[in-house]
Design brief:
alpha+beta; SH3 type barrels; 2 domains; eight-stranded antiparallel β-sheet; five-stranded antiparallel β-sheet; 11 helices; globular
Amino acid sequence: MTAAPADTMDSVAAVADAVLFEGYLLYPYRASAQKNQLRWQWGVLAPKEWGEPHSENWYSHTECLLEPAQDTTLRVRLRFLRLRQRTVQQAAPEGFVDVERLIVGEDLHLPWDEGIPEVVDASLQVSDLLAGEVTVPVELAGETSEEALTEGDRVVGRVLRHSWPVQGLVTISAHPLPGPYGTLRLALRVANTSPGPEPGADRDLAMRSSLIGAHTILALSSGAFLSLADPPEWARPAAAECTNEHTWPVLAGSSEQPRLVLSSPIILSDFPEIAPESPNQLFDGLENDEILTLRTMVLTDEEKREARATDPRAATLVDAVDSMPPEIFERLHGVIRSMSELGTATPAMDGVPTFGQMPDEVPTYSDETGGKPWWDPAEDSSVDPDTDSVMIGGHQVAKGSRVLLRPSGRADAQDFFLVGKEALVEAVLNDVDGDVHLAVSLLDDPAAEFHAAHGRYRYFRPDEVEVP
């Protein structure tokens, strides 16, 4: 049975949440921390009248390619955060007055701007999109709530939560491409049409009616999306003509059935995943789990108390870290996922595993090795980045060779900005798995000499370059 588009969307929920909450709240997860004073940096679509004079995005535009089947249904999901202001007030003889903190019993209460997830869904027939543009309105009313804070029968304060109206438009259309393949170019535009504040208003006021962390998920009931990063050869011209503004669409979900696209304000590669070793949402790119967890562990009780009072998600994170069992913490140290076989290295001397092969035995730190690493580059002359080489397209490539960069679909998405760039090979490196990597510097980079002095290069596999 074919999964429904809504079910398919659920398979990318973890990645979409990472996009939604990127930078939402940073270590040490407290409202008073300096780094949490300037917020809402990713995927913000501000009201147009305020956004344009401030060079702030007020719309995003996505284009991608799809091959529909008969009666294909397209499910569109817009997700974003809406700002909700939390105010803490203390009871006083003259009424309630705003305060920066209020302790009631053992609980600490702090003012804060919360981010509330919002979802707008639409289900459309692809055949209807070919007939003309379809518009889906975004209409969210402002809301206000009040929570009394009591000690026994006495009201000692209250927490007010207030959100403002948000309005927007999602417009979707599809256009057939010339040729025999039946491919369509899908266009989707998300625009913030909220009235917003005056152009001279502070950014904090504009965020009240903004779509924050805005991204879209597209799901097909049948047919397939085509990758823009690594399209079939026949689709490359059409993929190159797709226009994407303030967003980056990638294939998501199952690679066996590419019926899902995540259009994100953060550059991702096709089929992004959350590492299984990453159990908690740290709001920081999911790259620093171990160090952030360690730092959270050593926060004082008072710092943890403030973090818990800052935001419910911070409270969940602190509680999860405090209760983390040792076997889960050990997983945070990371894992090596070997790359597939891609070619054959030519080492300077015999005895080095060929590219893509593992050594028969890889001893670790032990009594057998005298407590030393199993491999010490200072003691082993069988590999030398300055003299090793690798065969690429019938050419021997070594330090000093010039190559053209051709990142593959498996590369980091940012590497695609370097397609066709000429680079100088600085070293041919053999790793402990027997794989080969080229350390290169860009020939047109004015800072290349500075980077080289610090040993900072870009790294590509042999199949990602060609000899000019």
